[in-house]
Design brief:
about 300 residues, alpha+beta, Tetrahydropterin Synthase, Chain A, 3 domains, rod-shaped
C-alpha cells in the first residue's frame, strides 16, 4: 500500500523569483554564446570559452522544466524512474524536481449516480434500489498507484455496497425494525460507513451517500400495494374503534354523573352497541324512532 507523502517544492514569490532568474540566465547565456561565436579568432584558439555559456544554457533549460502550474483542487504526483517521490497540493506556480515525471489528479468532489439495481431485501422481496454518492480523492498516491482506475473502482464498489445494504434491511416493516423506507438517516449512515471501508484503500473519501431510488420490483409491486392499502385500512379502523370506545366510555360516565337516567346492564349494552354502530359506521346512519315504551 502506497504511503502518501509531500514532495519538496518552491511556491509563491520564491517560485516566481526562480522563474525570473532562470529566464534571465537562459537569455544571458544565449546572448553570450552568440557573441562568442562572432569572435571567430577568440574561440577557435580556445574552444573552452564556449563551455560556460553552453553549460548555463543547459542548466536554465533543466530548471525551467521543473516549473509547473497546479490548478485549485488539483494535485501533482512526482515519480522518478518508476519510484514514487511525493505529492504537491499547493496551488499556483511551483518549482519541483525537474528530473521527475509527473501525473495530475483532481481533488474535486464528484457525484456518482449509480444504476438502478434489482436485488432482494432482507425478507427476500425483489426491490429496485439506487444511490447517489458524493466522493473525492483524499490521498492521490493511493488513487493513482494502488488501483488500476480509481473512478471505475468507485463505481463497482459502490454498486457492491448498495447490494449488500439491500440485503441488510427490509423494504418495509411494522415499525419495530429499521427499514429502507422508514430509516432513511440510519440507512444512509450505514451506506456511507461501508463505502468508506471499501474505498479507503484507494485513497477515496466519502462526503455523502443516500438512497436516490427505492421501489418494489414490477412483478410484486401490485401485490405489495394491495397489502399496504389493507394495512392502512386496518390501522384506520383501529384508530376509529379506539376513539369510539373512548367516546362511549365518556358518555356513560357523564350520564351516570348527571343521573339523568338509570340504566341497567342490559340497557347499557344496547346503548354501547348503538353508539359504536353510529361512530364506526362509514355511511350515514338512519335513526329509528321508538314509539313504544322504554323497553319495547
Amino acid at each position: 500500500m502506497t504511503i502518501e507523502k509531500s514532495h519538496w517544492h518552491l511556491g509563491g514569490i520564491l517560485s516566481w523569483l526562480a522563474l525570473c532568474l532562470a529566464v534571465l540566465a537562459l537569455l544571458g547565456s544565449s546572448v553570450n554564446f552568440c557573441q562568442t561565436l562572432l569572435l571567430v579568432d577568440h574561440w577557435t584558439k580556445d574552444p573552452s570559452v564556449l563551455l560556460a555559456p553552453m553549460g548555463l544554457f543547459l542548466v536554465s533549460i533543466v530548471v525551467l522544466r521543473g516549473f509547473a502550474v497546479i490548478q485549485p483542487n488539483d494535485a501533482l504526483i512526482l515519480m522518478f524512474y518508476g519510484s514514487y517521490c511525493g505529492t504537491v497540493k499547493r496551488n499556483g506556480l511551483v518549482l519541483v524536481n525537474p528530473f521527475c515525471s509527473r501525473g495530475r489528479i483532481s481533488l474535486r468532489m464528484q457525484n456518482l449516480h449509480g444504476d438502478i439495481l434489482k436485488v432482494n431485501d432482507k425478507r427476500g422481496n425483489p426491490i429496485e434500489i439506487g444511490a447517489v454518492v458524493v466522493w473525492h480523492v483524499a490521498e492521490p498516491a493511493r488513487a493513482m498507484f494502488d488501483v488500476d482506475s480509481y473512478e471505475l473502482f468507485v463505481r463497482i464498489q459502490s454498486e457492491a455496497a448498495v447490494r449488500h445494504l439491500a440485503n441488510m434491511y427490509a423494504y418495509d416493516g411494522d415499525g419495530e425494525d429499521t427499514t429502507l423506507r422508514s430509516g432513511v438517516d440510519e440507512v444512509s449512515h450505514t451506506l456511507k460507513a461501508e463505502l468508506e471501508q471499501r474505498l479507503s484503500r484507494a485513497g477515496i473519501a466519502i462526503d455523502e451517500a443516500r438512497i436516490a431510488h427505492l421501489a418494489y420490483a414490477p412483478e410484486i409491486a401490485m401485490a405489495m400495494l394491495k397489502r399496504q392499502q389493507a394495512e392502512a385500512v386496518i390501522s384506520a379502523k383501529r384508530a376509529i374503534v379506539s376513539g369510539a370506545v373512548s367516546i362511549v366510555e365518556s358518555a356513560l360516565r357523564e350520564l351516570q354523573d348527571a343521573r339523568l337516567v338509570d340504566l341497567d346492564e342490559e340497557r347499557k349494552a344496547a346503548m354501547v352497541s348503538n353508539l359504536l354502530v353510529v361512530l364506526c359506521s362509514e355511511g350515514q346512519v338512519q335513526p329509528v324512532v321508538n314509539t313504544g315504551t322504554l323497553y319495547s
